[in-house]
Amino acid sequence: MTNPRFWTGAGESPGKAACLAQWAQHFGEDAGAAMRFLRAEGKHAGLYPHPRGGPPMNIVPGGRKGFQAVSCDEWDDDSDAEYVPPIDLTFEEAQAHTFDLSSLGDELCACCGLGPEWAYEGDCLYRVGRCDKGDVYAFLGLSDDAPNLLHRVFERNTPAGCVLVAYETPAIRNCLEAAGVACVPLCECFTADPDKIGGKCGERCKAAWKTGTKKTQPPRKAVHYVVGGRFRIEGDFSKVTALQSREPVWGLQPFTRMIIKVLLLDCNRSGLTSDEIYSRAKAAFEAEYPESLKREKGQEMIPQRASPIQFLRVQRDGHKRPHPLYDELLISGQKPAVYSFDGKVIQCEEE
Fold first, then answer.
1. Which of 172, 235, 249, 258 has its CA 20 to 30 A from that of 225?
2. Residue range 30-46: average pLDDT?
């Protein structure tokens, strides 16, 4: 049996670059199984975990080994964590690494006897491949909103055969059973060892089909989103239309589309920080535009990391200003702030 933290940690990895110590903290007791999927970036990371649970430390050049982890400027004087002096780091200790989720997906596909077709679908949902019972998906999250997120699988024209889940909660199990889709808990059916991913689904999809609960999947209807009754966003996140003002229609650039997608789908009720929003948008952008991973003539197709307000600016009368949609966001907390639409987003089906 594998701790579900390995699978949820993998699902949260896209867009994340961190030093080895941060990855070890991210995966906890399953870090040993995750290390072989890390890929060195050839440059130092930005942060280093505080050894006593305080705010992350900044990694900067210097010290006797080449780099140091130093306390950040935003140190909270009221924190219970003990201040620590700079920590000397080698380049190997300071170096940024990214998690190669596609390699993990390839091994998981091999366990299931599927050709690797790992593809990001959004909201911790991945398409693994296709078996004789239908499409195979993996849901690498533990969200309380998981049943709603999984409905997108059942709305497709192609039936879903099974969903591999990090951990089988009653809500997820009931949701999948109602649709006649097999639920395969990764933490029970698969193992993650330092040298391999092992296990098999146990053909749970056959048992699901024998119950006779498999339903005919209806054609997926076109949708759009309404925010606060004031703005309509098209289902492909390409256009924002004001419903109660003369604000011109806003046609979105590809990366801004991904920012809006994350804000609508992931930040309706539960908020995310600026870094989390950017990381999820970057992962979704790279999945939809794989050519963006190629760097030509030194140009970056993906914008640099920035706060949401930078992506929600529009050019009006020769000046850039935040689009009124930005005012619908609830921004709470500090260092880092959390952004959410506070339940204002409603998904509407087209007639």
1. 172
2. 93
Q: CA-to-CA distance for 91 and 61, rounded, in angstroms? A: 9
Model confidence band, residue 213 (pLDDT cutoffs 50, 70, 90): very low
C-alpha 281/C-alpha 305 separation (Å) is: 10
**pLDDT tens for residues 78-113?**
444 567 899 999 999 999 999 998 889 888 888 888
Report the interhelical angle of 4-11 vs 101-111 (nearest 10°): 130
User: What was the pLDDT predicted at 54?
Assistant: 77
Angstrom CA distances, 222 to 152, 180, 204, stand at: 12, 24, 32
- Averaged pLDDT, 139-148: 71
User: Which one has a higher pLDDT value, 22 or 178?
Assistant: 22
311 forms beta bridges with none
- 43 contacts 18 by C-beta, under 8 angstroms: no
37 sits in the region (left: phi over 0; alpha: psi -120 to 50; else beta) called alpha
For residues 245-278, b (16+ Cβ closer than 10 Å) or e, as one string? eebeebebeebbbbbbbbbbbbbbeebbebebbb
Query: Of 279, 292, 154, which is closest to residue 217 (Cα–Cα)?
Result: 154
Q: What is the C-alpha R_g of the chain?
A: 22
Domain ranges of the chain: 11-98, 101-210, 223-293+302-349
More confident residue, 76 or 281: 281
